[in-house]
Amino acid sequence: MRKYLAKGKEGLKSEYRRIVPQVRLLEEENAKLKRIIGNQALELEFKTELLKKSDAHYQKERK
Question: Is residue 3 part of a domain?
Fold first, then answer.
């Protein structure tokens, strides 16, 4: 109602935000890079845990 009072008929039109193509490409690239970094972090954590377990197993065998 406020939009109508402030802008008249123009205030009733639905608003669609136009995204500049370059911005969309940057957002897609950003999302892709975030997925890559997330996968690398997960892989690093997995390898770290695996090394801890194998080191603990090795230490047990030495005793």
Answer: no
Q: What is the mean pLDDT of each run of 10 residues along the chain (63 residues)?
A: 67 73 95 98 96 80 66
DSSP string, 18-31: PPPHHHHHHHHHHH
pTM of the model: 0.57
pLDDT at 10: 72
CA distances from 13 to 6, 8, 19, 27, 62 (A): 13, 10, 18, 27, 76
The boundaries of the domain holding residue 45 are 19-62
Alpha helical stretches, state H, the chain: 2-7, 21-62
Q: How many domains does the chain have?
A: 1
